[in-house]
Design goal:
Layout: E1 6-15, H1 19-26, H2 36-40, E2 44-49, H3 70-73, H4 75-78, E3 81-85, H5 95-109, E4 112-114, E5 116-117, H6 120-123, E6 127-131, E7 134-142, E8 157-158, H7 163-173, E9 179-185, H8 198-209, E10 214-218, E11 226-229, E12 232-235, E13 240-242, E14 246-248, E15 251-253, E16 261-270, E17 275-284, E18 289-291, H9 295-311, H10 315-336, H11 340-353
Parallel strand pairs: 1-2, 1-13, 2-3, 3-4, 7-9, 9-10, 10-12
Antiparallel strand pairs: 1-16, 5-8, 6-7, 11-12, 14-15, 16-17, 17-18
Helix pairs in contact: 10-11
Length: 355
């Protein structure tokens, strides 16, 4: 294959054909019609496969659990995905059978996967793909703080986050490929936040310094801030590409409004070693994925605040405090279909009246 001067790889966040998305796909609806054209334009599309196929049983240590049908997984091909990550906190929701059903379907569809495997040694191997004549290597790890909650007898293996192991894997991979992309499932300490945890900043720098040409994260359900380290782009979390409310154990786990905003990240790798990167903002509107260009201003605002918080002494502790207290107010307002101001008024009335 003749090598081109540049290649473009696009990345989407959590892909979960659970519940309503599964139903819509099986009913021959197309929740992704608006965004498919931009995915077709890429040399490669990479996504975080947050859901695995159903099996006969589930991992009862994990709550909530999600699953989908083999029929729904066919949609991965329609979205032009060429590689999916399986080092996630839901890869074992449906035990060995669900995982095996999933990787067999991926193989049938011609979609590569990385991060987890029924073979312990293969689970630790990177994915190396030929893209436009370039050889691109991908490593994928999941952080324990995202709570995979594996039983002791789990017979599927995954790459757990260990910074020394990640650095070593990148250094070993670097001489054998043209570019390296690190794919992290992390950020469990800041779920639904727009900033990564402070410890992730140093971790990201170590990953880039080890030789990664880009770092793409997932898990937090929100489209988090990004930065450039030594000329290499770092996107801490892409949020949910598609995720429906989860029905599990008789309850409903609602997708928060902050989890309905995301972005498709495009990386263009050039011969001189530089990387161009951009975002196409998207949103989940009634479980249909659509473009929302107005979100670009919101993402720029959070990046601006991120730079300030990092420089202000004590800025991060204040952010964590606000995240734990303010975000649940927005979620309460969402569940009760009221405004944040009405939530505040109700709390004040309770303080003064006791009701």
């Amino acid at each position: 294959m003749k090598r081109r001067q540049s290649i473009q790889i696009k990345f989407v966040g959590d892909v979960a054909f659970n519940d309503d998305f599964q139903k819509r796909i099986e009913q021959a609806e197309d929740p992704f019609n608006e965004v498919k054209s931009t995915l077709k334009d890429a040399d490669l599309v990479v996504g975080n496969l947050e859901v695995v196929a159903f099996g006969a049983a589930q991992n009862m240590k994990k709550t909530p659990r999600i699953g989908t049908s083999l029929e729904a997984l066919n949609e991965l091909k329609n979205l032009n995905l060429g590689l999916v990550t399986l080092a996630t906190n839901h890869f074992y929701d449906n035990l060995n059978e669900g995982f095996v059903n999933t990787v067999n379907k991926l193989t049938e569809l011609g979609i590569a996967y990385v991060g987890s495997n029924v073979d312990r040694e293969k689970a630790g191997e990177p994915a190396i793909l030929e893209v436009g004549g370039w050889k691109v290597g991908f490593v994928n790890f999941v952080h324990p703080d995202t709570h995979p909650s594996l039983p002791e007898d789990a017979d599927v293996y995954t790459n757990f986050f260990d910074l020394d192991k990640i650095v070593s894997a990148i250094k070993d991979l670097r001489p054998n490929v043209d570019r390296v992309v690190a794919l992290m499932h992390w950020g469990g300490k800041t779920d639904y936040g727009y900033f990564p945890h402070q410890e992730q900043l140093a971790q990201a720098k170590a990953i880039i310094d080890a030789g990664a040409d880009a770092l793409i994260g997932c898990h937090t359900h929100t489209f988090q801030v990004s930065e450039v380290i030594n000329g290499k782009p770092v996107y801490y979390s892409l949020g949910n590409f598609c995720f429906a409310d989860i029905h599990c154990d008789g309850g409903i786990y609602y997708v928060r409004n902050s989890g309905k905003k995301s972005g498709i990240v495009a990386l263009e790798f050039f011969e001189d070693g530089s990387v161009a990167h951009s975002v196409e903002a998207i949103a989940n509107v009634d479980n249909t994925i659509v473009f929302r260009t107005e979100l670009n201003a919101t993402y720029r605002w959070w990046n601006f605040l991120f730079r300030i918080v990092r420089k202000v002494p004590g800025g991060y502790p204040v952010y964590y405090w606000a995240l734990r207290r303010v975000e649940p107010i927005y979620y309460h307002a969402q569940l009760n279909n009221i405004t944040v101001a009405q939530v505040a008024l109700k709390k004040l009335l309770k303080i003064f009246t006791g009701k």
